[in-house]
Amino acid sequence: MRTKPRKVIIDTDPGLDDAVGILLALNHPAFDVRAITTVAGNIGIERTTANAGRLLSAMGRESVPYARGAAKPLSGSGRDEETIHGSDGLGGVALPEPAAPVSGLSAVELFSELLIGAEPGEIDILALGPLTNLAALYLADKDAFARIGRVIIMGGTINEPGNAGPYAEFNMAADPKAAQIVFGSGAEIVLIPLDVTRRLRATPDYLQRLASLETRAAQISADLIAAYFADNAARESRPLHDPCVMLYHLAPKLFEIEPMALAVNDGDRPGALTQVQHGPAINVAMGIDAQAALDCLSDGLGKT
């Protein structure tokens, strides 16, 4: 497990499970969170941006800048997941209003400033939402983009059915053109698809485990996961998609990785991924030690 802090920028559309992943990163000493950037994704840019500020305030991390990113995808009309995440994106879980204002820089401008100011490879991007901001950075400032260490992405599906239609995962379907650009950029990419994220599941017992911990991060996460169950209380478990990105950063040995060249459909099956013979190799997580990962998540949220 990683113990030395590494600089990260979280690009996100919070979102219930996004919020749990963000709380883990803000609570765990292995993450040196340099900024949070937002994308419309789940519930629209105004709410995702406000939620980023609220999460920072809840954790007493007001000094971390957060910046408003893309309000719409590079292609298509975007998607909305209010039925899952609630009208506020956080399932009605009350968090303090942002204590610091949103950055005067756009997400792309903040990316550029932080990356140019760091050593090449020093900052990783933890991408929890559609890849619009990263694609926009690539198009606007290739020098800054080339300084990214790794891009760890929650998105896509290889063998599993989609959750945005039968073939595609939400983040890929929300902006397939952006995914095409990022996948073809030459960046070092780790992709964590539904094939893995659906295996990391929170049960009511796990929710109680988090609720018994005394940290702010664990308490809020328990409330968020409880809200995740609220739309269907009869469910026995719910997947924790986005925290898998943070868990890979913390403990990559929990995951089984296979290199693949992937094409992103931007036509009749928007966001669907296809393995191809030629193209940049992407490290794709295809297996996970789910119980160890759940332990890692609760341990990280419970750190004091």
From TrEMBL:
Keyword Hydrolase in record: yes
GO terms, biological process: purine nucleoside catabolic process
Family matches, as SUPFAM superfamilies: Nucleoside hydrolase
Record keywords, A-Z: Glycosidase, Hydrolase
Keyword Hydrolase among UniProt keywords: yes
GO CC list: cytosol
GO molecular function: purine nucleosidase activity
Ranges of residues in domain Inosine/uridine-preferring nucleoside hydrolase: 8-293
Alphabetized Gene3D superfamilies for the sequence: Ribonucleoside hydrolase-like (3.90.245.10)
InterPro entries, A to Z: Inosine/uridine_hydrolase_dom (IPR001910), IUNH (IPR023186), Ribo_hydro-like (IPR036452)
Protein name, entry field: Inosine/uridine-preferring nucleoside hydrolase domain-containing protein
